[in-house]
Design a protein that fits this description.
Layout: H1 2-12, E1 18-22, H2 30-47, E2 50-54, H3 58-64, E3 68-72, E4 75-80, H4 82-87, H5 92-97, E5 104-113, E6 116-120, E7 125-126, H6 130-136, E8 143-148, E9 153-156, E10 165-174, E11 179-184, E12 190-195, E13 206-211, E14 217-219
Parallel strand pairs: 1-2
Antiparallel strand pairs: 3-4, 5-6, 5-8, 6-7, 8-14, 9-13, 10-11, 10-13, 11-12
Length: 236
């Protein structure tokens, strides 16, 4: 950590127009990484210089970046402000990279029942919003990837009337203010749910979680794995 500070100081005294950082915090322990991250953010605000920062740590990207360029195999996937990428991922790769814990993905089959579009996981059904259903009509009879973030899953002590996902607890991580539940469906598909519920969770118990469908995403299963329901203009 001290060596990194000295290296940054050596660069500052030259008054450069652009700083290039290549994973500068990767070898630091977790506590020092947080401290250095804060120092770099304060430094950027004070110097008002351009900083290009390369990292595999999406927390660093989200907290330090004013604009993020997400790349895969040397190809740009999406460019935008941190919260824009979080809320509007262009494809499954970007959706899975941004966010901690990462977005959950479940393979579901799009069906039309009594004129309504439903997504069948095999052990439960999910009803998309009206806007999502319009876009999913073209995928009736096909499998798509249903994406939902852990924080957009609501725990209920009783089965919900609709969109109830009943799954079994395989692991839990009590983190004080919240608990991360690792869940598996009867079709062996796994997700993580973030809950602040005070209930006692035991391994092997079945629990009910309900997705916030306004925040849910659907991705095609082809090579591009593009976001199906959100209209995202590609500007690069």
């Amino acid at each position: 950590g001290q060596r990194q500070r000295v290296a940054v100081g050596r660069a500052i005294v030259r008054n450069p127009k652009v700083f290039l950082f290549d994973e500068p915090l990767s070898n630091l322990d977790a506590k020092l990484r947080v401290t250095m991250r804060s120092e770099l953010a304060a430094l950027h605000n004070r110097l008002q210089a351009t900083m290009i920062y390369v990292t595999h740590d999406q927390i660093e990207a989200m907290t330090l970046g004013t604009k993020i360029v997400v790349m895969k195999d040397g190809v740009i996937q999406q460019i935008g402000a941190p919260l824009y990428l979080y809320n509007n991922p262009i494809n499954k790769f970007v959706a899975g990279f941004i966010g901690t814990p990462p977005m959950n993905f479940l393979t579901v089959r799009v069906l039309e029942k009594n004129g309504a579009i439903v997504c069948d996981e095999g052990s439960f059904e999910i009803t998309p919003t009206a806007e999502q259903a319009k876009k999913l009509k073209d995928f009736v009879g096909k499998e798509v990837s249903f994406g939902i973030r852990p924080e957009d899953l609501v725990y209920t002590d009783k089965p919900a009337e609709s969109n109830n996902m009943q799954m079994k607890i395989t692991n839990k991580e009590p983190l004080g203010a919240e608990t991360h539940l690792y869940l598996v469906s009867n079709k062996d598909q796994s997700i993580i749910a973030k809950t602040t519920a005070n209930a006692e969770f035991r391994l092997g118990d079945s629990v009910n979680v309900v997705p916030n469908m306004e925040k849910a995403k659907f991705f095609a299963m082809d090579e591009g794995e593009l976001n199906i329901c959100d209209m995202i203009e590609k500007k690069w």
